[in-house]
Write a structure and sequence with these properties.
Blueprint (H helix, E strand, L loop, with lengths): L2 H26 L4 H21 L6 H25 L7 H21 L3 H24 L6 H28 L5 H5 L2 H38 L9 H15 L6 E8 L2 H8 L1 H19 L4 E4 L4 E7 L3 H16 L2 E2 L2 E2 L2 E7 L6 H17 L5 E7 L4 E5 L4
Parallel strand pairs: 6-7
Antiparallel strand pairs: 1-3, 1-6, 2-3, 4-5, 7-8
Helix pairs in contact: 1-2, 1-8, 2-3, 3-4, 3-5, 4-5, 5-6, 6-8, 10-11, 11-12
EC number: 2.7.7.65
GO cellular component, one term: plasma membrane
Enzyme class: transferase
Length: 394
């Protein structure tokens, strides 16, 4: 194959393969719309390169304009997709300003003051500015993992490629003649090769990131209770153990609240399982709302729930339980008031999680025995093996 034809088809081929790959990923994970945006962006990239080399269908000027427009669309779409992966608000202002200024100046140097070199500079500076906008967004998430760090570095490299490489090569090469001279110029050759390398590196990183997203989603599904949206028992215990490990060196208090819906079987028997499911979802919503970002709530049994409260002593944990109890006590099921009972224990020094849960369960049992719809707090001095029960009902 002729070297010129090979270079002409290199980037479109890479882009179309990547478009198909990201499109297939999106078909498998349709909740991740950024994958579809990436696929469209790579299709636009392929169109941009093809129109530079195959101008006959549109004519030279129309092909140049369409190619430049396709490149601009591709850069904006791929940049937006990278940022949207992190559920961040798209930096529309930054991308919009760079794209608009670039397009306006490109039009000026295409129709008014016709200058090929300045058109090249304008487009590359716009693409470089958009890459810097992406890098600025990625800076805030760089500590999430290696994929984020690599994406940040690649965004900076892309910006340098668009701006620094273009300036250096054009300075060394000097004036470029007509379109054929452009296609055979050192600038265009280095642009195609550097784009191919950066595209493959970026795609590899994005594929890795997408794979990590899948693994995280599967892990989340295996650790989440579908009905309540809280952690299931396995997920709760893993999160609780991690939290205990973080809190252990600090010596700060950690408390556990166990909750059990009162007479839940009667709700199912009288009103059906659908109503029982609604009650569970409602209670889970109250737990999640009161726990906020600090607490770790989970559904660890049919109608039994647990919330680990780092940095909370017995008084704070009791206030939490009373708040949940009062909030949930306002709800009704088929005209029947539904309540919950709570047991609380605070972590003793070097106490394992299962022992903490056992003591909280003992307190919960006492709340049930005392008439339900109440809160019981138990404190154990492990060194003396004594227990104090601090009862209470609202």
């Amino acid at each position: 194959m002729d070297t010129g034809l090979f270079l002409a088809l290199l980037n479109p081929s890479i882009a179309l393969v990547l478009a198909a790959a990201f499109g297939a990923l999106w078909a498998y994970q349709k909740n991740r719309s950024y994958l579809a945006v990436l696929a469209i962006g790579y299709v636009a990239t392929a169109i941009g390169f093809l129109l530079q080399h195959f101008v006959q269908p549109l004519g030279l000027k129309a092909s140049q304009i369409a190619s430049s427009l396709a490149f601009m669309v591709a850069v904006c779409l791929i940049s937006g997709a990278i940022v949207s992966r992190y559920r961040n608000r798209l930096p529309l202002v930054g991308i919009g300003i760079a794209a608009s200024v670039g397009a306006a100046l490109y039009g000026w140097f295409m129709f008014v003051d016709q200058d090929l070199i300045r058109r090249i500079l304008v487009l590359n500076f716009a693409f470089g500015a958009i890459s810097l906008v992406v890098a600025a967004e990625l800076w805030g998430v760089r500590k999430r993992g290696p994929a984020e760090t690599v994406l940040l570095v690649l965004s900076l490299l892309a910006s340098m490629n668009f701006i620094v490489r273009t300036l250096i090569v054009l300075k060394i090469e000097g004036p470029i003649g007509d379109h054929q001279g452009f296609l055979h110029s050192t600038y265009w050759t280095t642009a195609m090769l550097s784009h191919a390398v950066l595209t493959l590196m970026l795609a590899l990183c994005l594929f890795t990131a997408a794979a990590l997203d899948v693994v995280a989603a599967l892990r989340s599904d295996s650790h989440t209770d579908a009905l309540s949206g809280l952690f299931n028992r396995r997920g709760f215990e893993e999160q609780a153990l991690e939290a205990l490990a973080r809190c252990a060196p600090t010596g700060l208090p950690v408390s556990l609240v166990l909750a059990d819906l009162d007479h839940f079987k009667a709700v199912n028997d009288s009103f059906g399982h659908a109503e029982g499911d609604r009650v569970i979802a409602n209670f889970a919503g109250v737990l999640r709302r009161v726990a906020g970002t600090q607490g770790i709530p989970g559904r660890i049994g049919g109608e039994e729930f647990a919330v680990l409260l780092p940095l909370a002593d017995l008084a704070a944990a009791r206030l939490f339980a009373e708040t949940v109890r009062a909030g949930f006590g306002l709800s009704e099921s088929g005209g029947m008031r539904v309540t919950a009972s709570f047991g609380i224990a605070m972590l003793s020094h070097d106490e394992p999680l299962h022992r903490l849960m056992q003591r909280a369960d003992d307190a919960l049992y006492r709340a049930k025995q005392s008439g339900r719809d109440g809160v019981r707090v138990v404190y154990e001095r492990s060194a003396l093996s004594t227990r104090v029960d601090l009862g209470g009902r609202g």
